[in-house]
Amino acid sequence: VRVLNIALIGCGAMGKYHSYAFKIVNHFFDLSIIPKLKIMVDSDPSKEKEAFQYGFEKFSTNIKDVFTDNIDVVDILTPNYLHADLIKKAAQNGKIIICEKPMAMTYKEAKDSIIEVKKNNVLHCINFNYRKATPLAIIKNIIDEGEIGKVYTWKVDILLDSLSCKDTPASWRLEKKFSGGGASHDLLIHFIDLANYLIGKIESVASVEKTFIERRKSSDKKNTIIIDTDDYSACLVNFNCGALGIFDSSRIATGDRIQNTLEIRGSEGAIKWDYQKFNFVNLYLQKDNYKLNGFKKVYTTENDHPYMHGYYKFPGHGHHYNSLIVHQIYDFLKAIEKNQMPSPNLYDGLEAQKVLEAVKISAQEKRWVNINEID
Ligand SMILES: NC(=O)c1ccc[n+]([C@@H]2O[C@H](COP(=O)([O-])OP(=O)(O)OC[C@H]3O[C@@H](n4cnc5c(N)ncnc54)[C@H](O)[C@@H]3O)[C@@H](O)[C@H]2O)c1
Questions:
Q1: Does any ligand 1 atom lie closer than 6 A to the CB of residue 349?
Q2: Cα(11)–Cα(265) distance, integer angstroms
């Protein structure tokens, strides 16, 4: 058994989920690695209480404390503007890296940090956690096995109403200097990665972005600030494989707390998935009896479905968001156990960041952008 000392940077929403996943993963899954929650670092000293509540041995407000000899893994969970620099520092100090999405503010920043990662030959991972949902792992298998034939179209909605109220004050997520962008950097990037993973590489994009609520109270509510990030971002894409796609992402989708839906249509069948009906995949196969055909609702909770072996033996007990992070951490540790590069990793992060950059340019210049233009 190998004990791996873990340092987390950023004790916010994702700090809570990642530390939960590190704590619980050995309970459900067999691993020869035991992660130890060694230190939580957050610039806000009031986070000390949460750090101890989550089970950390130590709390610090000094980032230098994660780059000490006794730390094996650095988990980066801060606002986006700190990611690329922390990736570089972690790599220079020989740490295994896991980072939240997006890996950087811009493609250039992402590329620079990858140079350092390569130079120092460290293992790395990015938390594109939708890949780790059992239903999406099943969808991947269905497509790869050719069940729905040649993929024609991809359509995804990523609709949140978290910022639909004009009285909601700004936070780092709404200020470009901290986030890099709005709905696109926050939401779209997840599904750019998923599209790259499920369908294949994106070749070109045509996008629109808009800030509907142009002024908000600052986070301390003392001033009014001008919002320079997109509330809404949509794009059309061409995939290298010939498929076409539509992405619709919003943080002002009035009435929908979170509504992610996915539709993939192919020459022999189609797949639909709805985040709020997480544990089902709707599958249509043309080869089935045409007189009685239609979408069938398939449970994704069988014992031999991806990740389900770790849980309750009776099928039907499902999962939601927390499981994505647990599965991500499980795969991450499993890869470290085998001394293999985790998947997804920062190279996938870089690919997604490249498409994101094309989306931003397309919206700005009101034209189709080929991904090869981005360098
Ligand atoms: N994969 C997902 O599903 C998912 C979901 C939400 C957020 N995220 C990503 O996770 C990251 C964090 O998001 P969040 O929702 O947890 O944000 P958050 O605002 O809840 O937490 C961020 C934390 O970082 C701390 N912080 C800020 N500056 C710091 C610094 N210089 N040094 C140390 N700590 C600092 C803050 O005090 C705060 O506690 C973002 O990159 C975001 O895009 C991913």
A1: no
A2: 40
